[in-house]
Amino acid sequence: MKIECFINKKMWIAWVLLFTLCNPLMAQNMENELTKRQQSIIPIAAFTVKGDMKNLSTALNKGLDNGLTVNEIKEVLTHLYAYTGFPRSLNGISCFMSVLKERTDKGIVDETGKEATPLPDNKSSLELGTEVQTRLSGNPVTGGAMNFAPAIDYYLKAHLFGDIFGRDNISESDRELATLSALSALEGTEGQLKSHLRYANNAGLSEMQIWNIVDVLKEQVGNKEAYRANKVMSAAYERKFSMGCPIEDVFPKGRISTADYFTGTVWNQRLVSGDSVTQCQTSNVTFEAGSRTRWHIHTGTQILLCTAGKGWYQEQGQAARELQAGDVVVIRPGVVHWHGASASHEFSHLSVIPNPEKNKDTWLEAVNEEDYQLLK
């Protein structure tokens, strides 16, 4: 009995020590992750920018359920007009009005939240905005476009960072979450996205919290948005970037092919099956970045209709041909060839096989990895 009590006491002491040692680490990890409330801002901002009202409605409901107040969401949607324009912002606000009506009709009572307090009366919007912009940037923002177009410099400082950022019913870190998410949903904003990584950090978001944005975008918004954010963040934080540029295809992706005809991951979806009347077979083939077929031969003709992304086609003994959406490749019978995605982009094409009953394949060796990596 004494031995058993002694063992139990030792186990209890060991458990206490383990909990004491691990608890600070657990608390630190939790502090470095975005809360559910913060995460909810990300899809709200991204879907507003994309004009995707259906998914925005879902994100707004989830945001309210995760602790965002009505006034906080209104402020996020208002904040976004500076980055996405009045039309998208107003559409988002209209969508939110509909969501609130539906919830009210269901008897759901959402927290209103606080109103913004008046801006300081001892300084102008320009003075306030200059202070806020300088603090978030880490340095005074001058030169370049600011000198070339002084009006935009004034509007950025006085209106965006003064009148908008100066409103205190959401935090600066919430505003930067919305801004980074919005910019990730826009094409061609890499420069602004890079700048706002610094702004977000100075607003109080950790590097890990900023990286969380990529995860939320990928899970809740889309691969393209996650790709844009990941690419800029990887460069800024000097991390290896290995994510291939995703595509948006009009045809279904289908299932991952299990046949030993490919290097990497490839999806195949049969669209048209040949029969005695329609003597033609058509499939949508989608290649993950870096994926491709083995060298192979068809006894008949094959036609590739490229629909999205960037890829390669090569005939044996010939230089590889770069492919993109809109390109057409006619492959004659008996030609040894391969085709697939580029190393940096996903790729899809329609594969058209005339006379499928007589048009047979012969699969050969895999494409040499070193030769493939030299393709630029």
From TrEMBL:
InterPro entries per UniProt: AhpD-like, AraC-bd, CMD-like, HNL-like_cupin, RmlC-like_jellyroll, RmlC_Cupin_sf
Domain of life: Bacteria
Signal peptide positions (record): 1-27
Gene Ontology MF terms: DNA binding; peroxiredoxin activity
Domain (AraC-type arabinose-binding/dimerisation) ranges: 290-365
Signal among keywords: yes
Name recorded for this polypeptide: Carboxymuconolactone decarboxylase
Organism: Bacteroides thetaiotaomicron
Lineage: Bacteria, Pseudomonadati, Bacteroidota, Bacteroidia, Bacteroidales
